[in-house]
Design goal:
30% of the residues lie in helices and 21% in strands. It has 259 residues and is of the alpha+beta class. A five-stranded mixed sheet has the order 5-4-1-6-7, with helices on both faces. A hairpin with an 8-residue loop joins strand 4 and strand 5. Helix 4 packs across helix 6 and helix 5 packs across helix 6. The protein is elongated. The relative contact order is 0.13.
């Protein structure tokens, strides 16, 4: 049985800084004016391909100090330690650096290395969408799950009310966080055929060609040429992703005289 890579989808929500300031526009706030630093309030995560009900979630709501993220960081660190790849939206610039900052501040060692897929980067790499925000992408591409808008707590009030101990805000935070991950997964699977179909090939413990979508049904689709090579291109009949065979079809005798 092929063993697939472990792909973790994640999204984190952070507590805002609390600062003392004399103005609201273009302020240079010194460190001495920070009353409370930011922290991780909650996270949601899911292993790619797992059922929606297996979407994980942890927050700090039941704690006396809701800004103490030690407990939920330990669980996230363990998940990252198990992952071969991590998927998020704007995660290369936000979620992952934020988690790493909290890990080192808490005296934790780095988790095992992993590859990353940032769906915002994939959106800008391959497409010219009107917006590259997760809300726009999921509302236009996804059919099962779409990023949620705020319900009873619009704007920043969701985070404010959560920190005040409002149970309704906590429930909305959980649903909001989980839907970010569920819609992220659906969008990622839409994007994946546009990346190389061979990305996960070395993680499968078998000798047959397997697409990232799990299909083994390919059709020949022309050839890929390099300066000294000719390779059969294969297109997945399930998702349309393309990969190429590793056998060089140019004879060795011909390759020797190729400049």
């Amino acid at each position: 049985t092929p063993t697939q890579p472990k792909v973790l989808l994640l999204d984190v929500e952070t507590a805002p800084l609390e600062v003392v300031t004399w103005g609201i526009w273009d302020q240079n706030i010194p460190l001495s004016r920070i009353k409370k630093d930011w922290s991780i309030l909650s996270w949601s995560a899911k292993w790619l391909g797992d059922a929606p009900e297996k979407t994980m979630y942890m927050d700090t709501f039941k704690q006396k100090d809701k800004r103490d993220d030690t407990r939920i960081l330990k669980k996230m660190h363990k998940l990252l330690d198990e992952a071969d790849f991590v998927v998020g939206h704007h995660s290369d610039r936000f979620d992952i650096p934020k988690l790493n900052a909290r890990f080192i501040l808490k005296g934790m060692r780095p988790p095992s290395s992993y590859g990353t897929f940032d769906t915002k980067k994939l959106a800008t790499k391959y497409f010219g969408f009107t917006s590259n925000k997760l809300e726009y992408i999921t509302h236009n591409l996804c059919t099962k799950y779409k990023k949620l808008k705020h319900g009873k707590f619009p704007g920043n009030t969701l985070w404010d009310e959560y920190l005040k101990g409002n149970k309704e805000a906590q429930k909305e935070m959980e649903i909001y966080n989980k839907y970010d991950v569920l819609s992220l997964e659906e969008a990622f699977l839409k994007f994946l055929p546009w990346e190389s179909a061979n990305l996960f090939q070395n993680y499968y413990n078998c000798d047959i060609d397997i697409c990232t979508c799990g299909s083994i049904d390919f059709k020949k689709s022309g050839f890929h040429y390099t300066d000294a090579g000719k390779f059969q291109k294969l297109k997945c009949n399930h998702c349309g992703a393309e990969m190429r065979d590793k056998t060089n079809l140019i004879k060795k005798s011909r390759r020797k005289i190729t400049r």
